[in-house]
Amino acid sequence: MKVHIEPIVGRYAHYAIDGRQCRVYFEEAGQGIPLVCMHTAGADGRQFRHMMCDPKITANFRVLAFDLPWHGKSYPPEDWTGDEEYRLSTDLYVKTIMAFCEALELERPVALGSSIGGRILLQLAHQHGERFSAFIALEAADHQQPWYDTSWLHRGDVHGGEVCAALVSGMCAPQSPLRYRMETLWQYAQGGPGIFKGDLWFYRVDSDLRGKLTNINAERTPLYMLTGEYDFSCTPEDTMRTAASIPGAKVTIMKEEGHFPMSENPDNFKTYLMPILGEILSRAARS
Amino acid sequence: MTDDNKKEAALAERFEKAALGFARDRNLCADILVEFGTTQRIVRIRQGKVEEILDRFPLHFPWAFAVRAGTEAWEAHWERFPAPGLHDIFALAKQGKMRMEGNMQPFFAHLQFIKDMLATPRKEA
Q1: What is the spatial distance between Cα A257 and Cα A181, in angstroms, rounded to a whole number?
Q2: Hey, which residues 53-82 in chain B have their CB within 8 Å of chain A?
Q3: Parallel, antiparallel or unpaired: strands A250-254 and A223-228
Q4: pLDDT given at position B124
Q5: According to the model, what pLDDT value does residue B91 have?
Q6: CATH number at residue A276
């Protein structure tokens, strides 16, 4: 029997993040320009499996996706004693991404991220733009209006995994293939207790970036912003408003996509992503 | 009966036909008020199954929570591929086109059930 085995390789890296020793799981495939992918809140790096299995991408890019500590197959930090409320802050998120890039000695990688992973790219572009060769921010804005009380995500009388998955189920486009929508939701159902809520502390409380992105140089490091038309959390209007404040930022509104383009409707997403990767390749060839 | 009343009644009837008997394996027992404009229905759920949908019930019937929207919101939500912003109950709520009220604990504890039940009239291919 011929068995299809994917080219994705998963490994664990041990290094400190903000002074705390962590065992971080990451997956990768391909070779060439490093392309580091940041998953959405409450999920993990499996969201990028379709990019890692596409030879048109992996022929020129080394695609890497790590699970944030507390997510997926990355444990909490080694000194965790069980009595700590998990909260992702802007500062910790920046340090987490930079620590991964330094641990793997990635030289001026391309950074791609969705939702919280998209928002943090704006802060990275502002704070460490020279350390990256391009930013691809999906479902990203400097701020967006909350649409539910996050206390429902973590309480004793509501199953955390079920409510997280059910809440985000409506953030997928109805045209996205059912199989991929369900895979996307399954990650939310598998999240650790309070983790999605802790990620949203960054999103809702600690990262209002309005008026604070003055140091982004999109000429030096291109910034692409792509948002799905069905994303009512980070709406197309949120993204366009943000991009209007950043000279040189390029915006695309994606048809038939929601909040999880890389995992909910991956083939459709690639029709938007490939031209951008082509531009990045051309730019790299010129430099 | 006005044209608006007829439209509401038709939507409520469409919902009754689609939602009655909807079931999932879960221990939800609740009476829920669903409102189509000014037309109301009580959805009686027992052990994860819609057992009954009442069009007549006493004033101050003790429902657990209510989901209220106008006819245009329901019609748009039930399209096979609803337009952006009309495809999810929270998207509708964020725009002020739908309201959820009452005891939100069973609502959130059984959220996917509630979403799927409310979408049962959605047009299929």
Answers
A1: 11
A2: 80-82
A3: parallel
A4: 54
A5: 98
A6: 3.40.50.1820
Domain span at A239? 9-286
Given CB atoms, is A146 within the 8 Å cutoff of chain B?
no
> Can you list the alpha helix ranges (DSSP code H) found in chain A?
49-52, 55-58, 90-103, 116-128, 160-169, 178-189, 195-200, 236-244, 261-264, 266-286
Q: What is the mean pLDDT of residues A257-266?
A: 98
B81, B89, B94: residue with CB nearest A175: B81
Per-residue pLDDT of chain B (125 residues; tens, 9 = 90+): 788 889 999 999 999 999 999 999 999 999 999 999 999 999 999 999 999 999 999 999 999 999 999 999 999 999 999 999 999 999 999 999 999 999 999 999 999 999 999 999 996 53
Distance set, CA A261 to CA A41, A229, A231, A252, A270 (Å): 14, 10, 10, 13, 9
Q: How far apart are CA A143 and CA A157, in angstroms?
A: 31
Contacts of A95 (CB under 8 A, 6+ apart): A17, A18
The count of domains in chain A is: 1
Q: Which of A274, A227, A281 has its CA nearest to residue A250?
A: A227
Q: Which CATH architecture does the domain made up of B3-118 adopt?
A: 2-Layer Sandwich (3.30)
For chain A, what percentages of helix, strand and coil (3-state, to nearest 5) are there? 40, 20, 40
Number of inter-chain CB pairs under 8 A, A vs B: 51
Chain B contact set for A159 (CB, 8 A) = 109
Report helix, strand or coil for B30.
Answer: strand
Tell me the mean pLDDT in the region A220-240.
97
Residue among A147, A174, A229 whose CB faces B90 most closely: A147
pLDDT given at position A23: 98
| A4 part of a folded domain | no
Three-state SS for B79?
coil
Share of chain A above pLDDT 70, in %: 100
Give the closest-approach CA distance of A182 to chain B in angstroms.
12
- The β-bridge partners of B46 are B49
Specify the DSSP class assigned to residue B42. Answer: E
The tokens describing A228, both together, are 């799905």
